[in-house]
């Protein structure tokens, strides 16, 4: 600055300086020792919404009572990246310094960066983070409830025995082998075991029969970059690594290829995993739960399953009963699944005709709980569509109505036809509210023939409201 010129004169006379300062993104303000505004750049106009013509020459304190620059003049103190709110709704990061000439204070300059939007976003992010933390806690509680032993429905001795055994070994590190027919709830048991175990890691399931043989090894153990054609850049962690400190659920273990069984056994024995293509071993701490619907001892005899792997997995064996082996649980399951599906669809609870319940209890349920669950969902949808509050016998599928007994393969054709005929007459009679005349007409047979068959099969016993009209 030339001697003899005031700061104000220098700024007013220097066009290049003004243009340069106007191009700066931050708001630039210069005041003299009497707090009068000497310079106010274009960014300051944009940020504060005050034009140069209105503020230059004014006392900064009159425009911004909370401005920082006057205190820089008063205290001759510099501020670096100082957070400041000069006005309502404005959040600024300010660097401000006193200006001297020949050792004498002649003013102060500030560069203000508007962080109002960033600050608001930070507050919102903080709120979202807090909400996510709360949501995570809620989800963890819901997950624990959903996969706890309390979600396993059953009061039959066989089911209670299985649950008690699972609870007893849940906190141990022993491998567990779950056996039972398809649809008996093996994965539900496995998840409940994991939740009760207290292990901090994940529950990681894999269906050994659903993964191609060529991919199963890389899924379980992972691989390094370049291990084979098509390998991902950076490699990939296997499920053993992902399940570290948690539980690995090997579903359909009986379908695992023999070549993979030996590699699995090695990992189970020393807890060390080696990615495909790597020379490095990775320590893991994984609880193993395996499940199968095969008889593994028979598989061993047929040379399809390794006996040493079987004994490693079979530290604790829990057999899950088929649904037909615990018929006393069927009505409990029917109403519990009905409650869940009605709740999901926000509809009133539906009920079941007593003859429907009897049919459901007598049914063989080859698909076990999974088959029952699917059928209950179908009933809820049908009742909702038909605006009905009762599952009638006409809603039952043919396989339930016309099923043969569990020893049907031992009876003759005539007996099988009689069973089907009796079931069809019962269904039609109930659908006609016991009116035999309507029933005969619907079946397309004379009324006398219907009377004969009712007497032959003793169908009237236990059917209320039967009328001869």
Notable traits:
Rossmann fold; 469 residues; single chain; 21 helices; elongated; Helicase, Ruva Protein, domain 3
Q: Can you lay out the helices and strands and say which pair or pack?
A:
Elements (H helix, E strand, L loop, with lengths): L6 H7 L1 H8 L4 E6 L4 E4 L1 H7 L3 H4 L4 H4 L5 H7 L3 E6 L7 E10 L2 E11 L1 H31 L10 H13 L6 E4 L6 H12 L5 E5 L5 H9 E2 L12 E2 L1 H4 L4 E5 L6 H13 L1 E3 L6 E3 L3 E6 L3 H6 L5 H7 L2 E4 L10 H15 L6 E2 L1 H9 L5 H19 L3 E2 L6 H4 L11 H19 L4 H8 L3 H11 L12
Parallel strand pairs: 6-13, 6-14, 7-10, 10-13, 15-16
Antiparallel strand pairs: 1-2, 1-5, 3-4, 4-5, 8-9, 11-12
Describe the structure.
Helices cover 46% and strands 16% of the residues. With 469 residues, the protein is of the alpha/beta class. A hairpin with a 7-residue loop joins strand 3 (79-84) and strand 4. The protein starts with 6 loop residues before the first helix and ends in a 12-residue tail after the last helix. The strands form 5 sheets. The chain has a 5-stranded antiparallel sheet with strand order 2-1-5-4-3, sandwiched between helices. The protein has a 5-stranded parallel sheet with strand order 7-10-13-6-14. The protein has 3 domains: 7-114, PAS domain (Beta-Lactamase), CATH 3.30.450.20; 147-321, Rossmann fold (3-Layer(aba) Sandwich), CATH 3.40.50.300; 325-457, Helicase, Ruva Protein, domain 3 (Orthogonal Bundle), CATH 1.10.8.60.
């Amino acid at each position: 600055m030339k001697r003899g010129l005031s700061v104000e004169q220098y700024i007013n006379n220097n066009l290049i300086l003004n243009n340069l300062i106007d191009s700066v993104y931050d708001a630039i303000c210069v005041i003299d020792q009497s707090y009068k505004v000497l310079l106010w750049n274009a960014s300051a106009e944009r940020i504060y919404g005050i034009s140069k013509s209105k503020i230059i020459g004014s006392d900064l304190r009159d425009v911004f009572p909370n401005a920082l620059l006057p205190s820089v003049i008063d205290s001759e103190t510099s501020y670096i990246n100082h957070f400041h709110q000069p006005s309502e709704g404005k959040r600024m990061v300010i660097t401000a310094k006193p200006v001297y000439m020949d050792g004498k204070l002649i003013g102060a300059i500030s560069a203000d960066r508007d962080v109002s939007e960033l600050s608001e976003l930070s507050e919102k992010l903080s709120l979202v983070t807090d909400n996510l933390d709360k949501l995570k806690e809620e989800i963890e509680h819901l997950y624990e409830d959903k996969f706890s032993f309390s979600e396993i429905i059953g009061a039959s001795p066989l089911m209670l025995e299985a649950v008690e055994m699972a609870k007893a070994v849940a906190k141990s590190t022993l491998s567990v082998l779950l056996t039972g027919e398809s649809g008996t709830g093996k994965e539900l048991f496995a998840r409940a075991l994991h939740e009760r175990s207290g292990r901090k890691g994940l529950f990681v399931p894999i269906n050994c029969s659903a993964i191609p043989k060529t991919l199963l090894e890389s899924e379980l153990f992972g691989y390094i970059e370049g291990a084979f054609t098509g390998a991902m850049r950076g490699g990939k962690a296997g499920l053993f690594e992902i399940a570290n400190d948690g539980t690995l659920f090997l579903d359909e273990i009986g379908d695992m290829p023999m070549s993979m069984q030996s590699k699995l056994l090695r990992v189970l024995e020393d807890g060390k995993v080696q990615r495909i293509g790597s020379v490095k071993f990775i320590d893991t701490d994984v609880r193993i739960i395996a499940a199968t619907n095969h008889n593994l001892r028979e598989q061993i005899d047929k040379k399809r399953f390794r006996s040493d792997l079987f004994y490693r997995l079979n530290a604790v064996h829990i057999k899950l009963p088929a649904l037909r082996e615990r018929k006393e649980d069927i009505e409990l399951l029917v109403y519990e699944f009905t409650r869940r599906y009605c709740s999901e669809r926000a509809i009133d609870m539906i009920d079941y005709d007593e003859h429907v319940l009897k049919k459901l209890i007598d049914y063989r349920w080859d698909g076990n709980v999974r088959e029952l669950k699917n059928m209950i969902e179908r009933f809820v949808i049908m009742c909702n569509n038909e605006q009905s509050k009762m599952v009638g016998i006409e809603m039952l599928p043919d396989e339930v109505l016309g099923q043969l007994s569990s020893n049907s393969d031992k009876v003759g054709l005539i007996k099988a036809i009689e069973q089907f005929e009796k079931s069809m007459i019962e269904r039609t009679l109930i659908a006609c509210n016991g009116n035999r005349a309507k029933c005969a007409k619907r079946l397309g047979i004379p009324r006398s023939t219907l009377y004969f068959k009712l007497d032959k099969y003793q169908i009237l016993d236990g059917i209320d409201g039967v009328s001869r009209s």
